[in-house]
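fwd from M.: "can u put these together and see what the complex looks like"

so here's what she sent:
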Amino acid sequence: MTIKNVTVLGTGVLGSQIAFQSAYCGFDVSAYDINDELLARAKKSFEGLAARYEREVRGAAGGPARAALGRISYWSDLGKAVSGADLVSECVPEKLGLKRAVYRELGAVAPEKTIFTTNSSSLLPSEMAESTGRPGRFLAMHFASEIWVHNTAEIMGHPGTDPDVYTAVVDFAVDIGMLPVELQKEQPGYVLNACAIPWMGAALKLLVDGVCDPETIDKVWCIDKASEGPFHNLDRVGLNTAYDIYAASSDPRLRAGARYVKEHYIDQGKLGQPTGEGFFTYPPPEASHHP
Amino acid sequence: MTIKNVTVLGTGVLGSQIAFQSAYCGFDVSAYDINDELLARAKKSFEGLAARYEREVRGAAGGPARAALGRISYWSDLGKAVSGADLVSECVPEKLGLKRAVYRELGAVAPEKTIFTTNSSSLLPSEMAESTGRPGRFLAMHFASEIWVHNTAEIMGHPGTDPDVYTAVVDFAVDIGMLPVELQKEQPGYVLNACAIPWMGAALKLLVDGVCDPETIDKVWCIDKASEGPFHNLDRVGLNTAYDIYAASSDPRLRAGARYVKEHYIDQGKLGQPTGEGFFTYPPPEASHHP
C-alpha cells in the first residue's frame, strides 16, 4: 500500500494545512473544493502558508516552501480530483448528513485502492463507514490546527477497519512529519479533546461561578502545569492522593480509574514522584544534577 | 499589618519549601514541628533546598541561599514558635480533625495580631474558621510543590475573612516571589486543582478504557497544548464550537458556561481566534510578523 498521491477534500483552515503539509513533505496533492471561487481562495491560502513556513519552519525558506506550491493541483470535479488518489483526507464541514453524502459519491468515483480518512473532530468513523462503500479502507486521521507546530495526527479506526490500512495511514502520518497517536478503539473527541473538553469546562465553571477571571486562570495554569501531561501530573500529585480523589468520585469510570491506579501502581509501592516511580520513572533530584 | 516574622507549622515537603522560600526572600522564619527528630530532618531538608536553589535559582549561588538558612529557627514548642509571628502558614497533615485541634491550640497561644493561613489543598477555610478563634484573620494561601519554579500562591478567604487581612496576605505572597491568584469565593481545589482533577480524570478514563497509553497521551498533550491555558484553548477551538459542545452537556453548570460564552462573546461577534478576539485578543498572523 504505497501512498504517493493525496487528495484533500475541502480547503478550509485545516484542509489547506493538511494539503500544504503533505505537499511540503513531497507528496503530490490534489486540492478539491466545490467551486472555482473556493479554489481561488485556497490558492491564496496556500501562498499564505508558504510564507508562514518560510518564516516559521526551519529549512523551509529559500525554495522548499515554494516548491510545495508546485505539487498542488486544483479540482472542482470530484472524480478527477481522486482519479489517482492513494489516500483521501476528507475535511468537509462537520455535518453527518453532508459527510455521508460526500462518502457515497466518493465511494462511487474513487479507484478501489484509495484509502479514505476523515478529519472529523466530533463524529465517529463508525457513523460514516457504511456510506463509504469500503469500510475496511476507511478510518479517522485527525489533525490539530497549525499543523507545522502542533504536529499530531490522531489515528482511529472503527471496528471494521483493515489493520493493514490502519498501519499504512500511521506510516503516512509519520511521512508528513506528524507524531501518530494510535487509538486502540473509537473514542469521542479522540485523546486530545477527550482531555481538553473537561479541562476547559472546569475553567468555564470557575468563570461563571465568579471564582476567578480568565487571565489569572490561564496564567496560573501555565506557571504550574506548562509542558506537563496529565499522567506526569498524577505522578506529581502522588498516586495515593490521586487514588483518594478518584475513589470518592460519583462517576463509576473514575472509580475504575482509582482501582487501576491502586492495582497497577500503589500495591507495588509505586506512588509517583514521591517514590521515584509511577506512570513514569523519575531520577532522584540529586542524580539529575550530578550524573 | 506589616509582616516580618513568619512561622511555618509542619516541615513536610511543602512546609519546608514555604519556610525556605520565605527565608530566602528576607523574612525571619520559625519552623515548627512536633518533635526534635522531625526538626533535625527539617534542617537537612533546608540544606538540600539551599543546594537546589544554588543550582536552579538565578542569583542564589555565592551567598544568598546559605544566608536564608541563617534566618530559620527551629521550635517544637508551639507557643514559643509563634510568640513573634505576624503570619502563620499551617502545613500540617490533611486531616480536618487534626487541623481543627491545631487551630484551637494555636488560637490560644498566638498573639492577637497573628494572621493564620492554611496550605490545605482539599479542605475549605470555612471548615476550620471557627476553630481558630479569630475567623477574620484566617484564610487559605496554597502553594504548589517546587515553589521556586511553580511560584503560584492561591489565596482564598471564607465569607468571614477581613478584606484587609486578605490584602495583606496577597502582598506577602508577592513579597516572597509568588504570583498571587486571588479567588473571589471558596472553591474546592482552588483554581489549579479544580481544572486539573477533571483533566487528569479524563486521561485516566482513556487508559482504563484501553484507548491509549500514558506515554502517548502525555506526549500528544504536550505537543498540542503546552504553555496554553484553558481559556486560550477555548479561543483556539473557536467560541461557536465551544458553545455547541457545552450547550449539549448534561451538567447545568456547563450549560451556564455555554450561555455565558454566547452572551459575552458570540453575540458580540467575538468568536475567539477566528475573529481575532474572544477571552483574549489576537493579532492577525501577518501582523505579528510584520509590525
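replying to her w this: DSSP finds eleven helices and eight strands in chain B.
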